[in-house]
Amino acid sequence: MYKLSVFYLLFLAAVLQITLALKEGECEVCVKTVEKFAATLSDDVKKDPKLIEAKFKKFCKGTKNKENRFCYYLGGLEESATGILGELSKPLSWSMPADKICEKLRKKDAQICDLRFDKQIDLNNVDLKKLKVRDLKKILNDWDEVCDGCIEKTDFIKRIEELKPKYMGRSDL
Questions:
Q1: Exposure letters 2-39 (e unless 16+ CB within 10 A, then b)
Q2: Where residue 41 falls among pLDDT bands split at 50, 70, 90?
Q3: Where would you tag: which of 7, 28, 115, 143 has the fewest CB atoms within 10 A of its CB?
Q4: Between 44 and 11, the higher pLDDT residue
Q5: Between the CA of residue 124 and those of 141, 165, 169, 172, what are the distances in Å?
Q6: In the 8-state DSSP scheme, what is residue 172?
Q7: What span, in angstroms and rounded, lies between the C-alpha atoms of 74 and 95?
């Protein structure tokens, strides 16, 4: 009787672990950002959680968009309201994989896994006239460009067409 109840407890624990594990594509910003950050760390820094936290704060200063929002949630930015950097630095010092770190972070703050990367726009194959103004503004923002005096959609399209030769060699769009 006792052996059977232990078996059921172990089975329940295994099922619970599977249901709490990240599915494919979940927490994409968290996983990619943690992997990107971990790749920047040297072996001596990887062993000390305090050094990892300091490096993460430095890493966050160069982030933008969704990665910047991820840094904000973890406390890697000066304007962050809260900080759970210990939940990142300690598992990283143990060489825990990024997806497992993100599972732990999700338990602390569910917003972390709600972050999604914006879909990429292929400017070679897209008709700019069919895009929304929001997407046109995003293209300009990704290029760190502004469109002074742009009021109508055609103004944004004209500005993007002017800047296309300058940025089409870049791989981030």
A1: eeeeeeeeeeeeeeeeeeeebeeebbbbbbbbbeebbe
A2: very high
A3: 7
A4: 44
A5: 18, 11, 11, 13
A6: -
A7: 19
Backbone angles phi, psi at 117, to 5 degrees: -70, 145
Question: What's the per-residue H, E or C state across 96-164?
Answer: CCHHHHHHHHHHHCCHHHHCCCCCCCCCCCCCHHHCCHHHHHHHHHHCCCCCCCCCCHHHHHHHHHHHH
> Is the confidence at residue 57, as pLDDT, over 80?
yes
pTM above 0.70, yes or no: no
Q: What is the mean pLDDT of the chain?
A: 84
The Cα-based distances of 121 to 94, 115, 126, 133, 146 in angstroms read: 38, 19, 7, 13, 18
Task: Judge contact between 118 and 66, C-beta under 8 A.
Answer: yes
Two structure tokens written together for 164: 């296309």
Write the pLDDT tens digit of every residue in 98-125: 999 999 999 998 899 988 887 777 788 8
User: In 3D, which of 130, 124, 133, 131 has the Cα closest to residue 156?
Assistant: 133
Question: Which has more confidence, 24 or 90?
Answer: 90
Asked whether 56 and 88 are in contact (CB, 8 A), the reply is yes
d(CA 155, CA 80): 36
